[in-house]
Specification:
This protein has 262 residues and is mostly helical. Helix content is 66%, strand content 2%. It contains eleven helices and two strands, in the order E-H-H-H-H-H-H-E-H-H-H-H-H. Strands 1-2 form a two-stranded parallel sheet. Helix 1 packs parallel to helix 5 and helix 8 packs antiparallel against helix 11. The longest helix is centred in the C-terminal third of the chain and has 33 residues.
């Protein structure tokens, strides 16, 4: 699987493109714009995968010459940054979310999970050097706001956001791969399981693998598949929230002890 990296474009050009400080119309391109180019590039990546994305492929889909794109977008590196910033703008950011901070963080996690399902190519982009565009910054601001005021330091707030989004990234991969397997093979997870389970029962020795036999049988009967990525995501999210809550309590207790001791 091809891995692309965000933040590989020229810094000045990337930031100008991300923040639209320079978006001059092209006479050759007619009504061509950065927005139209980016939306088309996202459509290509959604439909054909990130490996199929190129300036030439986007130009073909738009019906223009490849060189015409370069009057709007300097190169593929800058294009990828704007694609990322654009799809990050899709996440819902309601002002009011029931359930306090846990509800807010859970809503953020589910929005990010859904984003990966809509745009599976996101899993092929390493974003340790993120595109510093307006949607990325707005998303980060909203995610920080979810844990603001629960007793964490600024560094801990940043770490919690990183922890949650990193968890979602890992949990989304099996969900995306499951959907892709169903699409590419024409067989659902349930159909695959029902075809393989009878043969597994014949070869699996409970005496040699007692836990795998017991737990695997229980899970298989429950899921009617080898696994359930959506359920695993929700289970892990709840445990993650429990850990954050415990950290908040520890911080609150330490602060209270400090006041009492003083």
């Amino acid at each position: 699987m091809t891995t692309e990296y965000s933040g590989t474009g020229d810094p000045a050009r990337s930031l100008a493109l991300l923040w639209r400080t320079r978006d001059k119309p092209s006479r050759k391109g007619g009504d061509l714009s950065v927005e139209r180019i980016v939306r088309t590039a996202i459509e290509v990546a959604d439909a054909e995968g990130l490996a199929a994305l190129s300036m030439r492929r986007v130009a073909e889909r738009l019906g223009v010459g490849t060189m015409t794109l370069y009057t709007h977008v300097p190169g593929k590196g800058e294009l990828l940054d704007v694609m990322l910033d654009t799809v990050y703008g899709e996440t819902a950011r309601p002002d009011e979310v029931p359930g306090g901070w846990r509800g807010r963080v859970a809503q953020i996690a589910r929005e990010n999970f859904a984003l990966y399902l809509r745009h599976p190519w996101l899993l092929q982009v390493a974003t340790t050097r993120p595109p510093l565009g307006p949607n990325v910054i707005a998303k980060y601001e909203y995610e920080l706001r979810a844990v603001d005021g629960i007793g964490l330091t600024d560094l801990e707030m940043d770490a919690v956001v990183t922890l949650v989004t990193g968890y979602v990234h890992g949990a989304a991969r099996p969900a995306v791969e499951t959907a892709q397997a169903c699409r590419d093979t024409g067989m659902t997870e349930q159909q695959w399981w029902h075809a393989h389970a009878p043969y597994l029962e014949k070869v699996l020795d409970p005496g040699r693998f007692p836990l795998a036999a017991r737990v695997g049988t229980t899970a298989g009967q429950e899921y009617q598949a080898a696994g359930d990525p959506a359920r695993a995501f929700e289970f892990g999210l709840a445990r993650l929230l429990d850990g954050i809550e415990m950290l908040g309590r520890d911080r609150a207790g330490a602060a209270s002890a400090g006041v009492t001791g003083g």
